[in-house]
Structure to design on (250 residues):
């Protein structure tokens, strides 16, 4: 590995792709769309759970559901370019993102993202 | 203080009143009634908050509200006889319990409960 200080404008980590301006725009849109859909889903479920509360255990079930969803969303939606292929792979695998939404990313990135999705599918099987 | 082992059937702590069977029944009923009212209030508020959720911040506000209420309820509703005068004093002070609901407790207990309520009112002022 060459010394980063010798080539200060070169991305210092091997195997981590750089993201062009247009790719960043595509990534941001896809990321926000998936997050928006997930939040919408949680909001709908919370409204439904709340409307059906009859006793205190239902109340604390709702609290627990919200806490777990918040933690899971915080863990999943990590918008660092070093993490994005993993994030998109996970979202693809979970059916929260369609591959078309990533159209315009470079083929090597798409392959990495697909690999993550396939790995997770295999791991879950 | 006399040795508890010398008088094994005597309540071993000074200044802590014993609770007769009828007092225990009154205490349990009053305690459960106040807790039931408080839970009902939280359930109604949660349903209202949930029905008004429009964006994710409203969702996490609901989670935060539920967590805080659960912790506060857990702290307040402590059904140990050694804690009950304090619990009832706090509930009286907060208007969550009416003094009539404690009718039948011995006067010394009622005085202790009123003292706690008065102390909290003074402390809050």
């Amino acid at each position: 590995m060459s010394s980063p200080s010798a080539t200060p404008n070169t991305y210092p980590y091997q195997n981590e792709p750089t993201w062009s301006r247009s790719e960043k725009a595509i990534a941001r849109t896809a990321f926000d769309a998936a997050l928006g859909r997930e939040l919408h889903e949680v909001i709908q479920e919370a409204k439904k759970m709340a409307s059906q509360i009859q006793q205190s255990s239902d109340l604390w079930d709702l609290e627990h559901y919200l806490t777990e969803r918040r933690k899971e969303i915080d863990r999943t939606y990590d918008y660092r370019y070093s993490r994005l292929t993993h994030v998109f792979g996970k979202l693809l695998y979970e059916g929260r993102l369609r591959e078309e939404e990533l159209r315009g990313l470079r083929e090597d990135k798409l392959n990495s993202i697909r690999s993550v999705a396939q790995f997770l599918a295999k791991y879950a099987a």
